[in-house]
Structure formats: C-alpha cells, structure tokens
Amino acid sequence: MFSLFAKSPAPAYRPIGPERSFDCAAIHAASFAHPWSETDFEQLMLGPGVVADGAIEVNDGELAGFVLSRIALDEAEILTIAVAPERRRCGIAQTLLLIHLRGLAALGVDRLFLEVDTDNIAARALYARHGFHQVAERKAYYRKGDATPASALVMRRDFGEQDFDGQDLGES
Ligand SMILES: CC(C)(COP(=O)(O)OP(=O)(O)OC[C@H]1O[C@@H](n2cnc3c(N)ncnc32)[C@H](O)[C@@H]1OP(=O)(O)O)[C@@H](O)C(=O)NCCC(=O)NCCS
After folding, report:
1. Non-local CB neighbours of 135 within 8 Å, separated by 6+ positions
2. Which terminus of the chain, N or C, has less C-beta within 10 A?
3. What band does 11 get if pLDDT is binned at 50, 70 and 90?
4. Is 127 one of the catalytic residues?
5. How would residue 148 be classed by pLDDT, with cut points 50, 70 and 90?
6. Nearest protein CA to atom 18 of ligand 1, as residue
7. Nearest to residue 20, comparing CAs of 57, 52, 60?
8. What digits encode the pLDDT tens for the residues 14-37?
C-alpha cells in the first residue's frame, strides 16, 4: 500500500568541501550545545590536512550528515561528526564513518584519535563498533548547554593491513 511516510532512500556518500559549510553548520547547530559557525567550517575545510565526507540525499541534494578530520603525517583526528536529527538511527553515521576511515587509510593514516563526551551514549556506541578504544579521560573538558562541566574520553583507532578488506570495520 502507498505510504506518505515511505522510508527515505539511502544517501550518496562523497567528499565535501567549503561549499557545504552552511549545511554543516546547520546540522552542527542541531547537534551540539556550542555549535560552530558557517565561517568556522569554511576556514577549517580550507585548512591544511582537513578532509570531510558527506551523506547527500539523492532526492534533493541536501546534506544529511558529515564527518570532518584533520591529518598530520600518519596520524589524524576526527574533529566532528553529526547526522541531521530527522535522519538518525538509519545507519548514516555507520556508513559515513566506514567510508571516511577507508579514505584516511588510503591517504596514509595509521592511527586516528577523537574526543567524545562521556555522556554521549550514541557516539560512544558508534565508535566502539568501529574499533575505537579509550586511551585517556579529560575531566571537565566540555561545558554542557547549562554550563555544567562534562568529561571527555580520548579514543584511538589503529589501522591494520587487513582492515579494509571486509565491509564491517566494527569486526576488527
Ligand atoms: C552520534 C550520531 C552521529 C550517530 O548517527 P546515526 O546516523 O544516528 O547513527 P547510525 O544510525 O549509523 O548508528 C550506528 C550505530 O551507532 C550507535 N548508535 C547510534 N545512535 C544511537 C543511540 N541513540 N543510542 C545508542 N546507540 C546509538 C549504535 O551502535 C548504532 O548501530 P545500531 O543501529 O545497529 O544499533 C548522531 O546521533 C548525532 O549526530 N549525534 C549528535 C552529534 C554527536 O554527538 N556527534 C558525535 C560527537 S563525538
């Protein structure tokens, strides 16, 4: 039967650049208590070693999610990842991260770091599935929306030679 609420088709995944700064800032604002501006994204994306991938809706070309990393030699850091609230829990971050990690490995990255709020259950589950493990904790690293402090976990993911032969990075 025809449904007005038919499932959205899977987005296309591809590298993005500063032309998507406005869209990244909009998703970031819907995702974090202290969002980055369009100019912040533009400057970051024009900076050295910064690579970004986006999930682009096939219907209308809208950005559904993105991930941004900065590479320094054989090391990289995920600076941010976010999916538009209305498009969460349908596997977009899972695929986006898989594609992004593959891209980083192809660029010669051996190890990847990120920081995540200890209270961010969704992100921690996502990173665990992608083989990240905790290497440190930074107490009172973030300020929440109500200004109370929150700790950050520093997580690390090492790329092995066999990593990208299969489809599911979470198995590694
Ligand atoms: C974290 C975030 C990027 C996940 O995006 P998403 O597209 O909804 O994630 P996916 O649907 O691909 O889920 C992949 C896995 O992540 C985990 N996950 C995602 N959302 C979750 C939630 N709300 N609760 C628990 N686990 C969750 C699950 O392991 C999930 O796999 P499963 O669906 O098979 O259980 C999204 O919630 C978001 O944008 N949050 C705000 C920004 C943010 O916190 N970014 C991370 C900063 S470090």
Report:
1. 113, 154, 155, 156
2. N
3. very high
4. yes
5. confident
6. 122
7. 52
8. 999 999 999 999 999 999 999 999
CA-nearest residue for atom 39, ligand 1, is 82
Active-site residue (options: 42, 127, 137, 161): 127
Report the C-alpha gap between 141 and 136 in whole angstroms. Answer: 12
Q: Is the pTM of this model over 0.85?
A: yes
Ligand 1 pocket mutation, candidates 83, 117, 144, criterion most atoms within 8 A of CB:
83
Tell me if 122 CB under 6 Å of ligand 1: yes
C-alpha of residue 2 to centroid of ligand 1, in Å: 29
pLDDT in tens, 95-110: 999 999 999 999 999 9
Out of 115, 141, 142, 171, pick the active-site residue.
115
Listed residue (118, 125, 70) closest to 93, CA to CA: 125
